[in-house]
Structure formats: C-alpha cells, structure tokens
Amino acid sequence: MPVNRNALIRYRTIDQCLQNRFKKWTLDDLIDACSDALYEYQGIDTGVSRRTVQADMEMMRSNKLGYEAPIVVVDKKYYTYSDKNYSITNSPLNQQDMLVLSEVSGLLKQFKGFNHFTDLNEMVSKLEDKIYTQKTQSTPVIDFEKNDNLKGLEWIEVIRKAIVAKKTICITYQSFKAREASSFCFSGYLLKEYRNRWFVLGVPHKRNAHILNLALDRIQAVAEHEEPYRENRSLDLATYYNDCIGVTKSPGQRDCEVIFWIDAANAPYVVTKPLHHTQKLLSEDINGKIFSIKVILNFELERELLGFGAKMRVLSPRILVKQIKAQLTKTLENYGSNNIMRVVQDADSE
Description:
10 helices; single chain; 11 strands; CBASS_pafABC_assoc_protein; five-stranded antiparallel β-sheet; WCX_dom
C-alpha cells in the first residue's frame, strides 16, 4: 500500500524512540517526537494528532509494510519494543522504501559533477548498490568498509539534532579507564568520524571546563537538558582537525614538521595515499623516499607510523623518534620467550 513521506518520517521517529530504552516513552512523548521530526524535515508546524500516532503504531505492528514491530505497553502507559534488538531498519525494504530510495538517489546524482559535492560520490554509489542488490536479490558489487559490531551509532542523530538546535544534553559516559559511568551536561559542537568510530567534540558544563572529545561507543545514555547551551566562541570547527591525524587534540596545541623515510618498495603506497594533506616529498634515492607532514603529535600519529613497521624510519622531531623507539623496544620485549610463555600460561589457567 502507498505510504507518504510524512508517514515514513513518523515511523522512523517512533522506531528511534522505542529503541532508546533509557527513557520511558508515553504516547505524548511520541507525539512530541514525531511533531519535532516533521517540523525539522518537512517544515510542518501543525503537529501530529494523538489518533495519527496510534494509527502509526498499529500499522507498524501489522505486516502490511513488513515491519511486524513488537510494540508493547508497559504499566498501561509506556511504549517500548518487547525485543530490545528490534528495529524497523532491520526489516527488508518494501516497495515504498525502494521508491523513496530511488527518488533520493536520482536527486543526489544530479550533484555528482559539482566540486562542492565531491563527498556525495561515495554516498551515491553506496545507495545505488543497495538499491540494485535489493531489486535483483543479488550480492553487492561494492564492498565498502564497515563494522557491523560498532556501538554508539544510535546516538549520532540524537546528538546531531541537539547541535543544530543548540540544545544542552545530559550524557552518561564511561571511558575505558573509568571504573564506573558518570553523567554530566554537555554542549556539542561537532560530530567527527575516524576509522569507523564516531566522536563528538564539545564542552562539559563544569567550572573551568576545557574542550572534550567523547567517543560515541562509550556513551550509555543521552537526554535533553534544560540547562542553557554554551555557544562555541573560540574554535573554527571547519579547520579544527586540519593539523592532526585522528581526533586527539587540545586547543592551542601546535603542529610540527614530522619527517620520515619509507623504503622504495612501500613508498608508492604513501605517494598514492598520503598520511596527511600536508605531505611533501623531500628527497628520494634507490633505497626509498623521505617525506614530511605538518601535524600535532598524538596517539593516532604514533599508531599510523608504527603500522609501517620496519618499512619506515622516523627522522624528526627528536621527541617523536624517542617515543617510537620506546614503543618498538616494548614490542620486542613482548615477543621475548619469557613473556610469550607467561602469556600462554595465563591464558591456559583461565
């Protein structure tokens, strides 16, 4: 049966709400969420009726769209999914979904030739491949890099909306080093992806607080908060990460020239895929090439350089050379016979 775009927006919104099990969703909460979504995406400010949202959930429960969503009512008041892993996004695409996707794909293809929209090329290719495989029930012809077990993706849209609306959010967060989670108010400024992990840059609402970068996969809960949003008045978000590899950076941290040598066999890989946009070729001979990049020194840079192993040698600055040597020394120690035997014994004892 035909489904209009507004209905699809409401279904997706209800689905996102019911997936968030950190909040108890009343019918009024779902009505407000759907009204906000329609205003954001369609500019509709008349809201959504109680009857419409109730009918939407009945449609989602049915098999008319292929969803058969396990929506239940708890304590005669709160709506949720009986299966915590359920989402309508896991359901096969129906005919209406395919029509919408084809419409979107056709629209995006019109912009593929524009320099300002070069980032759309990969997105359009992904979308067209998805449409092709769904229509033909065949295997994909493009295998993009992905991580199906990646956590935290459910927070991207919630945080994006808060940033756009300049709303404060309360985040429950537990870093890998922390023994337990903590909750705090946070004003987000920028969502950043690096190697299939997502991060949000912003400032916690604490006295003398500094810019903080949070990994979305360490977030346990996100909720709106009434505390006033703290505007970004110091960072140029368009260029903030231009001088670093990765996401680890402090405001005011200065970049420096990093010079490294790559052997002749592997130099072509670095030429065709530069480590950084500032990369320059300084010299070359039959044994290899010497390059430079201008970046801040951080963990991600060290990991990138160490990934080349014996194929690379860092030449400067001295502090980075010292850190790389220390890491390689520790690596050799880990491969010592005594250490290997101890690790094997510990594994066996478990």
